[in-house]
Amino acid sequence: MLTDSGTNAMSDRQLGAMMIADDAYAGSQSFVRYQKAVEDVLGKKFLLPVHQGRAAENIITKAFVKEGSIIPMNYHFTTALAHISQYGGKIEELLYDEAFVINSKRSFKGDMRLEKLEECINRYGVEVIPYIRMEASTNLIGGQPFSIDNFRGVRRIVDKYGLKIVLDASLLGENAWLVKQREEEFKCSTMGENLKIMTGLADIVYFSARKLSSSRGGGIRTNDESIVRALEPLVPLFEGFLTYGGMSVREIESIAVGLYETLDEDMICQSPKFIAYLVNAFVKKNAPVVTPAGVLGCHADAMEICSHIPQPQYPAGAWAAAFFLVSGVRGMERGSLSNQRDEYGNETYADMELLRLAVPRRVFTSSRIGADMLGLLLIPSLQEVT
Ligand SMILES: Cc1ncc(COP(=O)(O)O)c(C=O)c1O
Questions:
Q1: Class (C level, CATH) for 269-385
Q2: Which residue's alpha carbon is nearest to atom 16 within ligand 1?
Q3: N or C end of the chain, less CB within 10 A?
């Protein structure tokens, strides 16, 4: 249960498509199929292929971020922040306070606080803000989605100030599904409609195909030719030719199929439903897990479980190790250990100290999830181990 990154199981159709890949350095038909799938599922005109999500971040930040840039965002992901700081930029995180409350009923903890966004733009000035970043299913606060209503609000402010939005769509599929479950206006809309509404609100959309399409690879999408002109020269330099971007043709084929599968509600709901099952079972036992259930996995609060371990001693890291010793299940520390050091190499402390038990797509059965649950319910003995 370490991660969902590239560990979502591929479907038979994805594996089959890999067998018919067209292995050409340039002009591969596999790339043509990839282009069509991205256009059908995510909309937008231009596609720049990259080998994974962080490669897209590298190209976007290299093109737009410089010393003194400020990037307002709902919340950072580790690789996004690392790229922004590498080019001298700083981030401003604009979530609602309740996003950090472990036990909450707020449906969209990934929403950006709109008045804070406007205040941030006025404080720093538009000249230093190359773009606003929105992350779907905000990873580090427990896989929590944003609402389309909130995203529309972000777009209104961005338009008022003539800025751009970059959408990290790596976890957009599950975010779109949760919108359907939790946002009244979209209860009857299809996955395809929700996805296109969300990508339509952004100027640049990038994704890790390790997540979005249960495969490997990635891509950057935009309608804006001036953005393509800024990003395109960096793809051959860092990734590979513009028709493979560092990916094998087999990966490209599996992304194309995986993107279409993202439209299938029966497929996309599997992981969030299993996560909700796990989260709700823990809640019944008063175990401190992030609620409402989000995506990616079940996130348990190490600050509470390991309240005897101060943050400089990495409570989430300690608990991840103890949890493995006791249950045999490997989860991932999502806390200060994964946090970026400051510019002087000093420790910085994460807003949350979480142990993530990832539930990748099509990997576990419900009985396996039940067995893992038993491991986590050994919390009293875990406290002894830590
Ligand atoms: C929200 C988000 N953005 C970007 C990335 C980076 O993608 P990759 O691991 O493909 O480089 C990840 C990976 O976990 C992610 O969760």
A1: alpha beta
A2: 139
A3: C
